């Protein structure tokens, strides 16, 4: 079942430790089988058919400018050549989930760790760990945008600090509700920029078209207090005014905020706060029905 949310970092087991201390490996592009390239083509074609009118402009432009197409699993070296020239980022291969500090260290140095493996043909809609389709199709196009490029580097730096302060869960919630499951307002309406949505067939439709979830204006301390689901669609999608709002976040010192937020009660994944700016009050039908099963 395609639950875009899929496990990311915190819950799922970290991959077996490879030889290099930074957990990177060679992508080994020439070792991909015809079946693996065929899986990529299937995922790419069905997702690109869904994205028009749903993906934000930066995602569309980023995808168009990168060597990413249906024919084959992208070569990280070719991706990095284009990315470096635009925002100084590069894509490095990893065997799967890496420890938090390794992940942050890479992001802080504008290296995006991408899983090199691709899901099997019989699990097209189920993702245990972020694979090459999630990481390259979902995340890399947004790295072409200067605001996201700066924001993700700041997240890496902030992650190392949050770990020292013992506040990682609060920061991970900011990452989850933006880089993984974020929506943005555009002239034509709400659009997706989160990789977890962009790489999921069913969540792309659920996050933007379904009446069930709430859609709430992004608010930093509110998000830091809000627990999230990793096992199913999100109950609330947070919406930024524009991508520049993320750049503002990158410039904020989170340390005092962690203390302020720690003194307040947490919010459940689908719980509305009276102070929320509600863009869409969801019916909650989907999660109610799921819970009733
Ligand atoms: C909080 C942090 O963002 C999260 O726990 C992690 N995410 C990832 C990770 N490793 C990989 N490869 N991909 C992720 O998205 N390690 C840790
Ligand atoms: Fe991801």
TrEMBL record:
It catalyses: (6R)-L-erythro-5,6,7,8-tetrahydrobiopterin + L-phenylalanine + O2 = (4aS,6R)-4a-hydroxy-L-erythro-5,6,7,8-tetrahydrobiopterin + L-tyrosine. GO terms for molecular function: iron ion binding; phenylalanine 4-monooxygenase activity. Residues 1-293 form the Biopterin-dependent aromatic amino acid hydroxylase family profile domain. Keywords: Iron, Metal-binding, Monooxygenase, Oxidoreductase, Phenylalanine catabolism. Its EC number is 1.14.16.1. Pathway: Amino-acid degradation; L-phenylalanine degradation; acetoacetate and fumarate from L-phenylalanine: step 1/6. Its cofactor is Fe(2+). One of its GO terms (biological process) is L-phenylalanine catabolic process. Fe cation binds at residues 134, 139, 180. SUPFAM superfamilies: Aromatic aminoacid monoxygenases, catalytic and oligomerization domains (SSF56534). Belongs to the biopterin-dependent aromatic amino acid hydroxylase family. NCBIfam families: Phe4hydrox_mono, PRK11913.1-2. This is Phenylalanine-4-hydroxylase. It comes from Piscinibacter sakaiensis (Ideonella sakaiensis).
């Amino acid at each position: 079942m395609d639950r875009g949310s899929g496990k990311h970092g915190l819950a799922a087991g970290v991959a077996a430790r490879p030889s290099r201390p930074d957990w990177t490996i060679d992508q080994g592009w020439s070792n991909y089988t015809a079946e693996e390239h065929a899986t990529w083509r299937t995922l790419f074609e069905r997702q690109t058919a869904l994205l028009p009118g749903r993906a934000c402009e930066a995602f569309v432009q980023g995808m168009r400018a990168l060597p990413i197409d249906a024919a084959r699993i992208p070569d990280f070296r070719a991706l990095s050549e284009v990315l470096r020239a635009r925002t100084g980022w590069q894509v490095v291969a990893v065997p799967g989930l890496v420890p938090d500090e390794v992940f942050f260290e890479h992001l802080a140095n504008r290296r995006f760790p991408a899983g090199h493996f691709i899901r099997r043909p019989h699990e097209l809609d189920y993702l245990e760990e972020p694979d090459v389709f999630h990481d390259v199709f979902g995340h890399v196009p947004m790295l072409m945008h200067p605001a996201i490029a700066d924001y993700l580097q700041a997240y890496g730096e902030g992650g190392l600090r949050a770990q020292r302060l013992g506040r990682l869960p609060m920061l991970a919630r900011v990452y989850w509700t933006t880089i993984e499951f974020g929506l943005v307002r555009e002239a034509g309406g709400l659009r997706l920029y989160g990789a977890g949505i962009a790489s999921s067939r069913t969540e792309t439709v659920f996050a933007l078209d379904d009446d069930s979830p709430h859609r709430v204006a992004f608010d930093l301390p509110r998000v830091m207090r809000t627990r999230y689901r990793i096992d199913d669609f999100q109950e609330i999608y947070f919406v930024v005014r524009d991508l520049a709002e993320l750049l503002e976040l990158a410039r904020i010192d989170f340390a005092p905020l962690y203390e302020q937020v720690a003194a307040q009660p947490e919010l459940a994944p689908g719980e509305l706060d009276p102070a929320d700016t509600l863009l869409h009050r969801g019916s909650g039908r989907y999660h109610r029905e799921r819970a009733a099963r």
